[in-house]
Amino acid sequence: MNQTTTPEHQRLAEAAAGGIDIDSLSIRLGEGRQAFEAIQDISLSIAPGEFVCVLGPSGCGKSTLLGALAGHWTPSRGSIQVDGKAVAGPHPDRGLVFQHHTLFPWKSVLDNVAFGLKMQGVGRRERHERALELLRLVGLEDFGDRYPIQLSGGMQQRVEIARVLINQPRVMLMDEPFGALDAQTRLKMQELLLDVWARVRTTVVFITHDIDEALFLADRILVMSPRPGRIIDEIRLDFERPRHPDLMTSPHFTRLKRHCLSLLHPQASVNPLARLSALGPQAGAHQHA
Questions:
Q1: Relative to the CA of 194, which of 107, 139, 205, 269 has its CA 20 to 30 Å away?
Q2: What is the pLDDT of residues 232-257, one digit of tens each?
Q3: Extents of the domains making up the chain
Q4: Residue 214: which pLDDT band, with cuts at 50, 70 and 90?
């Protein structure tokens, strides 16, 4: 992959701040007898440029927490701030990447990446130049004229990352983005994400239930309990960067994996819930351009 710093990389680095402060956050979902507390009394801080993974069992409220950060869920109690400003709704400063891509099938890869700039009124030539720079960043500079259906799953997710980054987000929110990929492609995408992050240093909050993935990617892991989701442990990782796959066979990695497994062992009898989307209650709505 091309390691040269480009104007688009510099814009991303200059835009980066992304400090997150969550204070006593609880979110209650549903109505009447169907209401339940999805997450309970979460307080945490994330430094600008930090890579944090949120690890927990299915149905524990990971995606609800991410959706609250995105501005799609309203807190029942507590507050969320990004760079000292309250989160009051969705904003391009907080970009979302999902497990399944949300690319427009009728648009080319280049136009998909450039779409955010088009909505901001940026001229065609400039937005295409900036989109091409980001496609270079994710290793897809030769695929700008293709359509999403012509790409593999891993390539589609690369385009998705580029499309989010073009808005120069302070925070990138990633909801199990590689969960639908095969193991080999997933590892390649993890390495690519770390390479991109090392150059743009956007704050990343990454949701996963995969212990290996969390340990490989993160500066810090926040472990959540079964519903109602609470932070039950915080694991700071001192593995050197850049990281390589052979890290996963090291004794220290294995010890931390065992620790995470012990934390994720079921602690209560809770009926699993259908997986919620970080988009909130309107997750099924289609996007239009």
A1: 107
A2: 999 999 999 999 999 999 999 999 99
A3: 12-104+171-268
A4: very high
